[in-house]
Amino acid sequence: MFPNYLVNIQKHLFDPLQLKIENLIIEKESKNYNACSFQCNNQMVIFRTANNTPKKKGLFVTLWKRNKSGPIEPFHYQDSFDLSIIETIHKNKVGYFIFNKEILNEKGILFGKQKGKLGFRVYPRWDKPNNKQGIVTQKWQSPFFIETKDEMIFNHCLNFLSEIFIK
Known about the structure:
alpha+beta, Trna Endonuclease, Chain: A, domain 1, six-stranded mixed β-sheet, three-stranded antiparallel β-sheet, 11 strands, 31% strand, globular
């Protein structure tokens, strides 16, 4: 059995596709973000839960690893993972960003094309950013977002997920 924070993703995203979380590794650090990694149908996934911040729109999430000498650093494009799934929760709304390595690299979050970032903001569809940076970020993130409450969108997104996990 896996931790409670993975129940939603298993129930909402993987069960409809008859997929299972396997080879779960719970990270000792970043517990505030439910940091873990797992495999799902041969796709290596880095999972985090984004946190609401009281003074800014959007949610914040960390995406880093500890290197061999000790300090933390952004994940590298060459690291062995395929996707990062970021869970977002606000009141009764639950959604997931499913980012592939390519978009994370293109947007400078991974070390590769740019120096990378230790954390970043995500803007679910229900958020209304109030600055230019937030609006631009939400626009590029939107195609990677699945909200579990909107049945029509969710069914479309299940098709998207099946293309990722069932090749």
